[in-house]
C-alpha cells in the first residue's frame, strides 16, 4: 500500500503511546497484562489504515486485537481512526515489520492471524515477501496454538491462487473457502477500505480460513 | 445433465461397438491391447455430450482417451460426435456408472482423470454423489499411478469451494489452481458445450489440478 509522505506522522504516533505500542518486544509473553484480561488475542498483519481492526475491536469486545503495519505513513491513519473511535480498550497497533512477530509474541500467545488485501507481490522473485509464503506461515505457526487459524481475504486472484496452493502444501487444512465473499453476505464480515472500493465494482472477494495441523511441530 | 428421452439411443449405441465398448470389465488390465499401443490412458468421468473428450483425442493423438457417461440419452450424442470425427483411433466411450471404475481399470492403468462441469449436487445430503467426494477420490486413486492427477473444471462456485477443501483434506496436493480459466486463455484448453455457454456470459470458470501423494497407500 502506498501513501503520501506525512511528515507529521512520527510525532502523531509518538503522542499516542497508549494506542501504538513502542518497543513491543518488552511485552512478549505479557500481552494479557497489557490488556488487563485473559481474552484471546487476534492480530492483523498488514493492518493498513485500520478500518478492519477497529471495526473488529468495536464488534467483539471480548477479543483483544492488535494491528501490525510496517509503514508509518499508513498506520498513522489507523491511529487517527482508533482515536476517533474513543481508543477501544481491546485495540492496540504496532508499527513494526511482520518479520519480527516471534520477537513480539510468545508461542501460543496469539489466537488467530488475519491477513486482508495483502500486497500481492506478483513477480515470482518476490514470492518470499507474500504474507502467505512459507517464511511467514512458519512465523504464524510459532506464535499460534496448535490448530491455530489464519483468515485471509483478497481481491487479487493471483495471490489467492498462490495462497490456496501454498497453505495446503505447507500442510495447513482449508477450514473454509469462499470465492465470492460478498455474494454470501456474511453478517460478521467487516470490510476494509480496499474491500469496499473493489467489491462495489463487482469484483469478487476471495477468502479462506486455514488451520495448522497439530502434528507436534 | 438432463436430456430428452431418445428411444433410438440404445440401438444407435449398439450399432457402434467400436466406439462404445460393451462389457468393459473384460478389458480390465488389457486396455493397451484394445488401443493397440502403450500410450497413456486418460479418462473423463461424466463425459456428457463428448465435446471435450473428442477434442482432446483429436488434439493429442499420442494419448488414449476414454469418456465415461452413465446416461444413455446423453452419451449417444458423444457417439454421434465421435462418428462424425471419423472415429478417432485413440477414443473410446463407456456407458457405465463411475462407481464401477475399479471393475474396469487395473491399478495404475489410468494415467489421468478429468472431471468437467460435474453435477454439483448442492444439497449436503447428496454430497456423496459429488465426483470430488472421498468415495470417488478413492476410486481414482486406486486406478491411477502414485502421484496421479485429477484435473477438474467447473463454473459452479459451491462445488469448486467444496472440492478445494475436500481434495486437500483427502491429502491431495494442489498442483495448479485457476479462478478464472478463460482470463488466462491457455491454448491447451478444450471447451465443453457447457463451458462455452457459461463463459460467454462472463461467468468465471474455475479449474484445479490435484495430485495424490505417494505415501504408500
Task: Please give a handful of descriptors for the protein shown.
9 helices, tRNA_(Gua-N-7)_MeTrfase_Trmb (chains A, B), homodimer, 217 residues, SAM-dependent_MTases_sf (chains A, B), alpha/beta, tRNA_methyltr_TrmB_bact (chains A, B), 7-stranded mixed sheet, tRNA (guanine(46)-N7)-methyltransferase activity (chains A, B)
Report the span from N to C terminus of chain A: 34 Å
> In terms of structural class, how would the helical and strand content of chain A be classed?
alpha/beta
What general outline of chain A do the C-alpha atoms trace? globular
Low-confidence segments of chain A, given as residue ranges, are none
Multimeric status of the protein: homodimer
Structural Rg of chain A: 17 Å
SSE sequence of chain A, one letter per element: HHEHEHEHEHEHEHHE
Amino acid at each position: 500500500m502506498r501513501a503520501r509522505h506525512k511528515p507529521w506522522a512520527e510525532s502523531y504516533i509518538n503522542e499516542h503511546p497508549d494506542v501504538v505500542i513502542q518497543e513491543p518486544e518488552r511485552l512478549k509473553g505479557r500481552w494479557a497484562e497489557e490488556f488487563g484480561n485473559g481474552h484471546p488475542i487476534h492480530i492483523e498483519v498488514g493492518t493498513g489504515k485500520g478500518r478492519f481492526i477497529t471495526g473488529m475491536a468495536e464488534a467483539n469486545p471480548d477479543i483483544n486485537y492488535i494491528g501490525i503495519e510496517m509503514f508509518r505513513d499508513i498506520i498513522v491513519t489507523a491511529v487517527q481512526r482508533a482515536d476517533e473511535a474513543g481508543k477501544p480498550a481491546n485495540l492496540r497497533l504496532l508499527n513494526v515489520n511482520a518479520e519480527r512477530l516471534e520477537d513480539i509474541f510468545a508461542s501460543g500467545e496469539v489466537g488467530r492471524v488475519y491477513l486482508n488485501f495483502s500486497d500481492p507481490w506478483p513477480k515470482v522473485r518476490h514470492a518470499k515477501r507474500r504474507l502467505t509464503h512459507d517464511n511467514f506461515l512458519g512465523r504464524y505457526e510459532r506464535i499460534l496454538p496448535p490448530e491455530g487459524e489464519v483468515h485471509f481475504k483478497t481481491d487479487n486472484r493471483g495471490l489467492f491462487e498462490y495462497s490456496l496452493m501454498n497453505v495446503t502444501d505447507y500442510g495447513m487444512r482449508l477450514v473454509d473457502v469462499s470465492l465470492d465473499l460478498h455474494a454470501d453476505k456474511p453478517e460478521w464480515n467487516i470490510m476494509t477500505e480496499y474491500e469496499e472500493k473493489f467489491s462495489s465494482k463487482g469484483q469478487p472477494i476471495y477468502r479462506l480460513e486455514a488451520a495448522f495441523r497439530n502434528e507436534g511441530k
